[in-house]
Every structure is written in structure tokens, then in C-alpha cells.
Design a protein that fits this description.
The protein contains seven helices and 16 strands. By secondary structure, it is of the alpha+beta class.
């Protein structure tokens, strides 16, 4: 099977009718996606805004059309094939240590693709994501970072460990974040869809996190453990859909046991003052940031 393709055709979303209690989807009556895409904007309903505030995430259908996804597919393929070069640790496997060949990665991660492909800066997805973010968390926002995450077919160990995004970031007075996770392929339990523990964004303290490999100089990944009373939900979404999550909601994803790709394109909008403070401290979300800067994030601070 060819691992690195320049595009993946949309397929029918898989549902597991025998395990409906373990899966989650938003099947409420809503306007068609075509009616919600208005130029650079996407209209978020009051119900969806309330759901985001209550659960810490929300599923938005049809943020991009099939036609609008075509250009993203093409560029995404160029990243996966190595045609677009990525510097140092910004290309890595989020399941293991830095280094190695992308051909052997289980969970392919590209940090800051807009840095390495400047033509993506200001693209339609970014503009729609900006409008969605403002509706969900308010104004005064700026794009903080972008990211690609891809699970090749049959990579059952392509598991993104449970975590809260704030554990990866420095603390600032205004932590408001809307992280949009765009599905380039239908995303199901079988190929490693997102999963969340709703309501955890309301907990007063972050969960304790640890480096996956013991040292963040060896691997960027942080993880935390689920508690016995946590109730995870899978978020199965279709190609062109997005989930949007906050900075403190607990989330992760399972491995890809299917023979299909699971590709995602993430953009995160945060308060302008927060982004400016991050950059002042040398924090850019690049895995190539200075080791002392990466060591200053919330999860790495000494606990009193």
C-alpha cells in the first residue's frame, strides 16, 4: 500500500451500531453546512456555543466543502512526501523519540506548516477558523500556531496520549483558546478519531502531566492518566468537519487499526496579548524552541 498520497478521497463515515453508548455525535437538527458557510465566515449556532462552554469542545459540520479541501489535500501530500522541507524537530513522531524517517513514523506531526509553506498563511481555513473562534471565545484573537497530525493506515500504536493543551504552554493572564481540528479524512474510532472528557475544562487545576519518554529533549509528548470517574466520548466526524476545543479540556486519540488514513489540520486562535507574551519569552510552539523555554511550560514547573 502507498503510504504517502497527495490526496485521499472522502469515504462513508463508519458507525458502530453495537456500541452506541461509547460513541458520540451531534445529530441535532441544524442548518445545512452550505447555508452556514458565508464567504470567510462560518455561522455557529447558539446551541453549539453553549455546548462548547459546557463540554469544552464542539463538533461543527461542513466547515470546508469538498472543493475547498482540494488545495489543502495537495499541499498536505507535499508535506508527507517530504517535498516541503520541515526544520529539525518540527517534523516528528508524537508516539516516540525525535529522529528517524517519516516512513517509519506512527503518528506524523508537522509543527507550524505555515512557516514552511508561507502560501498557506491567510488561507480560507484560517479565515473561517478566525470567525468561528471569535463566536466561541470572543474577540481580540490572533492565530497562535498551526499543526498537521496524520496516522497512516494500520498504525494501531498511533495513539495521542491523554493531555490538556495548557500543559504544553506557558501561563498567561488570558488563556482563552479555540483549537480547530479539521478532518481531511472521515475520522472514526477505527482510524483514531479524537476523544474528549467533557467538562474537564472546568476543573480548578490542570491534571499532572509527565513527558512520555522521561525527557522533553528526547520527545515532545506529554501525558496524563484518566481517573476512574472520567467518562470519555469519541468524536466521530466527517471529512470537512471540525471539532473545536478549549485549552483545558482533556483529550487524546486512539490508534489507526483501519486501512485508511486519518489526517488532521489544526489551527489555534488565542488572545493577542497572550501570543505577544509567548513570543517575548521565545515560545513559538516550535519543537525547536530553546530547551529552557520548553521547560518553563505549566506542566514542567516545580510543584509546591
Amino acid at each position: 500500500m502507498e503510504r504517502y498520497l497527495h490526496g485521499t478521497a472522502a469515504k462513508t463515515l463508519i458507525h458502530d451500531d453495537d456500541n452506541t453508548d461509547e460513541l458520540w455525535s451531534c445529530e441535532a437538527e441544524e442548518p445545512s453546512p452550505e447555508g452556514r458557510r458565508v464567504g470567510d465566515r462560518y455561522v455557529v449556532s447558539e446551541e453549539e456555543i453553549a455546548r462548547f462552554k459546557e463540554d469544552g469542545y464542539v463538533h461543527l459540520r461542513g466547515v470546508l466543502s469538498v472543493e475547498e479541501l482540494a488545495e489543502i489535500d495537495e499541499v498536505y501530500g507535499r508535506f508527507l512526501s517530504g517535498e516541503i522541507e520541515v526544520e529539525g524537530k518540527d517534523l516528528c513522531d508524537m508516539t516516540g523519540e525525535y529522529g528517524g524517517s517519516i516512513q517509519d513514523f506512527q503518528l506524523i506531526n508537522v509543527m507550524l506548516p505555515r512557516r514552511y509553506h508561507p502560501a498557506w498563511q491567510g488561507n480560507l481555513y484560517e479565515r473561517r477558523a478566525a470567525s468561528i473562534s471569535e463566536q466561541l471565545i470572543g474577540g481580540g484573537l490572533k492565530l497562535d500556531y498551526d499543526q498537521l497530525l496524520a496516522k497512516p493506515p494500520g498504525e494501531a500504536e498511533a495513539i495521542f496520549a491523554w493531555h490538556q493543551d495548557m500543559a504544553y504552554w506557558i501561563d498567561t493572564p488570558d488563556t482563552r483558546t479555540a483549537s480547530l481540528w479539521l478532518a481531511l479524512d472521515d475520522s472514526s474510532v477505527e482510524n483514531g478519531c479524537m476523544r474528549f472528557v467533557p467538562g474537564t475544562q472546568l476543573e480548578p487545576e490542570l491534571r499532572p502531566h509527565s513527558p512520555l519518554k522521561g525527557d522533553r529533549g528526547e520527545s515532545h509528548t506529554l501525558f496524563t492518566e484518566l481517573r476512574s470517574d472520567d467518562e470519555p466520548r469519541h468524536a466521530e466526524i466527517a471529512r470537512g468537519d471540525c471539532t473545536v476545543h478549549s485549552e483545558r479540556v482533556l483529550h487524546g486519540s486512539g490508534g489507526n487499526t483501519s486501512q485508511r488514513w486519518r489526517r488532521a489540520y489544526i489551527v489555534a486562535y488565542r488572545a493577542m496579548e497572550t501570543v505577544e507574551e509567548e513570543r517575548r519569552q521565545g515560545f513559538t510552539h516550535s519543537h525547536n524552541d530553546a530547551h529552557d523555554v520548553l521547560g518553563s511550560v505549566e506542566s514542567m514547573k516545580p510543584k509546591s
